[in-house]
Amino acid sequence: MPEMILLNCEDRMDKTIQALERDFSKIRTGKANPAILNDVKVDYYGVPTPVTQVGSVSAPDAQSIVVKPWDTSILKELEKAIQTSGLGLNPLNDGKIIRIPIPPLTEATRKDLVKNSKKVAEDNKVAIRNVRRDAMEELKKLEKDGQISEDDLKRYEQEVQKLTDKFIEKIDKLAKEKEVDIMSI
What we know:
Elements: H1 2-26, E1 41-44, E2 47-50, E3 55-61, E4 64-69, H2 75-83, E5 92-93, E6 98-101, H3 107-144, H4 150-183
Antiparallel strand pairs: 1-2, 3-4, 4-6, 5-6
Helix pairs in contact: 1-3, 1-4, 3-4
């Protein structure tokens, strides 16, 4: 039973790291990254559809993203969806594809993005600590119910803490990498 608690704890912490990586992929850097369009939805025959499902999205170079829709009749809707996405991008429609130039980031914008990425990282650290708290409560309940001894409780609590430390360290590493990515020109 305690092993299941540890496995569940590790699984939930893994999912938190995956969520952090998804969140970080949406934060703009000075380089073209097709992942920033993952949450942009286009009105495709009355259904909000992710851009990635209506065409191919690529970054042919570091300063632009190209969206090539499979159905060119949605170019106008696609252009509008990208403009109104809040990403600060200005797409260019040439009748066949959408080309999105990625403007260089100003120093102030970079600092704001770093601040935002640190907040995202801190939110995910809180999520990791919440998972730790839940696991500790479950272990204490097992000990209270007589299913594990006090010594086992201490040992399992140490295991949970080791997992927590490992995942917090992973978050710090990812946050540092993102900061370097944002600040590099």
